[in-house]
């Protein structure tokens, strides 16, 4: 035990003290923050705002230009399909009706088709303007109409999954999808990064020939487990640091959200606000996101993540170690031996992407039980709720099989490893590895 | 007491019998040469003695008790032929780490590492990484790491390969000193001249079997061919006599083989009678190299004695 502890310590410290580790730990969150910022920047700025001329014979449209949305509506009775381009319009919105408004047939003329989002926005704009026009014509006060429409706009559906516990609120499907997707993906990346770190570590020991000196002092199993556990600790450290850094970043980020938006958001949280029309869409979104994040059962997700992260890593790390021990100095070898190990991990992410849309389907259920895929697939399902989505016995079976699988791969890999690390200058075939593993020769 | 006793040790791989019934023993403070051509099974044998491999059959007794790898590993120091160190680790740290894996405490390991580094004039390397060292330097480090934990059995596989003569001599002196202090040393090599210089006792292996075992001087005597060298003051025509055969006679270098049953001085008398002005007359013992080649190739070799 003392020896394995020494090995863990060396494997851990030699990596954590490394400049590459420190840089990648601090730069990765910055990199992701940068990507997100870039995405926000692009999406907020990129779509050119369409200018649309409105030739309105109904009188429902306001008769001054309106640029409050993504689309700029410009009342221009003289607009014609002939001078569309020269006046800088992307389309002409035309209503043929005069007199009594029955909604009529609105037409839009443009050179090229507008995107679906613009189409939807224009449509809903026509509807709400005609609705307002009709209500005013039928004697309602215009400010009342505005208020009604604003309240209506803020209505969002809330999903409730019926559970045995009364009134238990289920998580919002959208946020569960997001968390599940992220958790599955993070585990996938972790398996790849730390798994190949184990493999490279074993290869290094083999090609440096230090392995022979090591196994004259410690058992090969101790050497292998020391490395696996040491690198596992490196992975945990890195994730912990990332979590702390991301939390820090998001706190700094929240300082940049305007104060009045935060106040509005706080006020919007109270039910049925009288002054709903004064809230901006952003405030509503913020409240909504906060509410959704609160509805997620973090007490299940976080321990679940740690469990599947750790045991998924241990399950695959042992296999990576065995492959590393079989590799020669030849890099071509590495590719051909690594493929069968990385293939199930890649398959897991493919299953996860499909399964997350049908988290109760047979693919999702089997994927989250078979140890090769369960760390990735199960983590995508857990945020949808236990036992709502994942029954307890399914979770127990999945966890049991993963732990059993880890014990099995470790046992198997140790048998390949102890022969492989001392075999120099020879290409090792899968057949030979099979023989070492199961016949011990 | 014998530090190591090996009895009928066997290890078979799928394709060949790497070690096939080897027995020998090594006394305390002995320097023991384990010889054999490449592929003779030396490395496999050593790996069984160091506990890396389990034997298929046979026994290893270490200090009189059955060998227990976990317990006895700390009493063995092994320097494999394929040298290995962590390239990116600082060498002082590395020496301490490997010594602690052999059971030393941190302070013991630190103290002894400093001592050895000073002895071999390596002190200013402490914070260097292995990848910055020259080949000779890392060989020295490798030796220090092998003996740092004061093992009672030291196994050195080709310890001098890659060392310049100065450092080779330095290491040789250290090996002799360790033996004098009571450590037993197994010295595996195919460089015979070093074996003759250092080893008390040798075992020669080929194809997994032991083909020779004994003290170096005895072995040489056992394989002698009654060859004598002769130096003369000036060229003299000589002819063979009943007491000897003329093996070579050129440029004042003369080699004779004494006939079985005759004594050297009879031959010398005959030569003097032939008018040879003898300035030197001495016996040629076969070198271990000759014996090695003869035994390994299975056919008697023509001895190419250089005078």
Structure explained in plain terms:
The complex is a heterodimer of chains A (441) and B (307). Chain A has 441 residues and is mainly alpha-helical. Chain A contains 15 helices and four strands. By secondary structure, chain B is of the alpha/beta class. Chain B has two domains: 2-216, 3-Layer(aba) Sandwich (Rossmann fold); 225-284, no CATH class. Chain B is built from ten helices and 14 strands. In chain B, the strands form three sheets. Chain B has a six-stranded mixed sheet with strand order 6-7-8-3-9-10, with helices on both faces. In chain B, strands 2-1-4-5 form a four-stranded antiparallel sheet, covered by helices on one side. The radius of gyration of chain B is 24 Å and the shape is elongated. Chain B starts with a strand and ends in a 10-residue tail after the last helix. The interface between A and B is medium-sized, with 23 and 28 residues.
Morphology call of chain A:
elongated
Give the topology string of chain B: H per helix, E per strand: EEEHEEHEHHHEHEHEEHEEEHEH
CATH topology of the largest domain in chain B: the name is Rossmann fold
Largest sheet of chain A: 4 strands, mixed
Query: Roughly how many Å apart are the termini of chain B?
Result: 41 Å
Mean pLDDT of chain A: 81
Beta strands of chain A, count:
4
Low-confidence stretches of chain B: 299-307
Question: What is shown here, in short?
Answer:
Chain A has 441 residues and is mostly helical. Chain A has helices spanning 2-16, 19-45, 116-137, 142-154, 173-207, 210-215, 220-255, 259-268, 281-295, 298-326, 331-355, 362-367, 374-381, 392-420, 430-439; strands at residues 51-56, 72-75, 91-95, 107-110.
């Amino acid at each position: 035990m003392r020896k394995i502890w020494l090995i863990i310590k060396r494997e851990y410290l030699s990596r954590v003290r490394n400049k590459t580790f420190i840089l990648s730990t601090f730069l990765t969150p910055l990199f992701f923050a940068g990507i997100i910022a870039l995405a926000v920047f692009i999406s907020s700025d990129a779509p050119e705002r369409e200018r649309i001329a409105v030739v309105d014979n109904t009188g429902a449209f306001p008769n001054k230009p309106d640029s409050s949305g993504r689309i700029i509506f410009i009342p221009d009775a003289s607009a014609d399909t002939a001078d569309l381009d020269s006046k800088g319009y992307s389309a002409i919105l035309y209503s043929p009706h005069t007199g009594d408004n029955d909604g009529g047939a609105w037409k839009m003329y443009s050179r090229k088709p507008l995107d679906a989002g613009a189409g939807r926005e224009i449509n809903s704009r026509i509807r709400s303007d005609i609705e307002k026009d009709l209500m005013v014509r039928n004697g309602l006060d215009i400010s009342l109409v505005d208020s009604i429409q604003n309240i209506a706009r803020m209505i969002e559906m809330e999903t409730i999954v019926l559970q045995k516990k009364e009134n238990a609120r289920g998580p919002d499907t959208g946020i569960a999808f997001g968390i599940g997707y992220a958790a599955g993906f993070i585990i996938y990346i972790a398996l790849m990064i730390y798994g190949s770190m184990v493999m490279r570590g074993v290869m290094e020991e083999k090609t440096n020939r230090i392995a022979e000196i090591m196994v004259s002092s410690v058992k090969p199993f101790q050497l292998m487990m020391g490395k696996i556990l040491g690198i596992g600790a490196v992975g945990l450290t890195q994730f912990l640091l990332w979590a702390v850094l991301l939390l820090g970043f998001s706190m700094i980020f929240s300082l940049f959200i305007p104060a009045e938006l935060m106040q509005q958001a706080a006020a919007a949280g109270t039910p049925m606000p009288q002054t709903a029309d004064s809230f901006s869409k952003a405030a509503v979104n913020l409240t909504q996101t906060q509410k959704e994040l609160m509805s997620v059962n973090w007490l299940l997700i976080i321990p679940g993540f740690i469990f599947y992260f750790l045991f998924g890593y241990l399950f695959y790390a042992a296999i990576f170690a065995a492959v590393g021990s079989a590799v020669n100095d030849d890099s071509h070898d590495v590719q051909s031996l690594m493929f069968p190990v990385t293939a199930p991990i890649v398959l897991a992410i493919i299953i996860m992407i499909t399964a997350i849309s049908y988290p109760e389907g047979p693919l999702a259920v089997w994927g989250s039980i078979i140890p090769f895929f369960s760390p990735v697939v199960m983590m995508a399902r857990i945020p949808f709720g236990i036992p709502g989505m994942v029954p307890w016995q399914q979770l127990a079976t999945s966890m049991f099989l993963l732990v059993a699988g880890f014990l099995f791969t470790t046992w198997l890999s140790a048998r390949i490893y102890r022969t492989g690390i001392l075999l120099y200058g020879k290409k090792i075939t899968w057949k030979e590895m099979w023989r070492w593993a199961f016949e011990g020769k | 007491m014998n530090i190591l006793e090996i009895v009928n040790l066997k290890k078979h791989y799928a394709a060949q019998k790497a070690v096939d019934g080897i027995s020998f023993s090594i006394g305390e403070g002995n320097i023991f040469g384990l010889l054999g051509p490449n592929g003779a099974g030396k490395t496999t044998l050593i790996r069984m003695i160091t506990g890396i491999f389990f034997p298929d059959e046979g026994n290893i007794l270490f200090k009189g008790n059955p060998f227990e790898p976990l317990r006895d590993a700390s009493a063995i120091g092994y320097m494999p032929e394929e040298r290995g160190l962590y390239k990116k680790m600082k060498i002082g740290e590395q020496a301490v780490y490997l010594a602690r894996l052999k059971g030393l405490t941190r302070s013991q390991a630190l103290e002894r590492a400093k001592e050895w580094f000073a002895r071999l004039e390596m002190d200013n390397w402490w914070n260097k990484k292995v990848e910055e060292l020259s080949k000779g330097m890392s060989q020295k480090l490798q030796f220090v790491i092998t003996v740092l934990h004061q093992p009672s059995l030291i196994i050195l596989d080709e310890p001098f390969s890659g060392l310049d003569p100065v450092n080779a001599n330095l290491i040789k002196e250290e090996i002799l000193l360790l033996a004098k202090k009571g450590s037993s040393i197994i010295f595996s090599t195919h460089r015979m001249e070093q074996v003759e210089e250092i080893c008390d006792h040798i075992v020669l292996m080929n194809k997994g079997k032991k083909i020779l075992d004994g003290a170096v001087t005895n072995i040489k005597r056992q394989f002698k061919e009654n060859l004598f060298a002769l130096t003369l003051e000036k060229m003299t025509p000589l002819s063979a006599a009943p007491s000897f055969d003329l093996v070579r006679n050129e440029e004042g270098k003369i080699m004779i083989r004494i006939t079985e049953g005759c004594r050297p001085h009879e031959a010398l008398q005959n030569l003097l009678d032939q008018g040879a002005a003898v300035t030197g007359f001495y016996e040629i013992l076969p070198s271990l190299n000759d014996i090695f080649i003869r035994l390994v190739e299975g056919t008697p070799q023509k001895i190419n004695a250089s005078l």
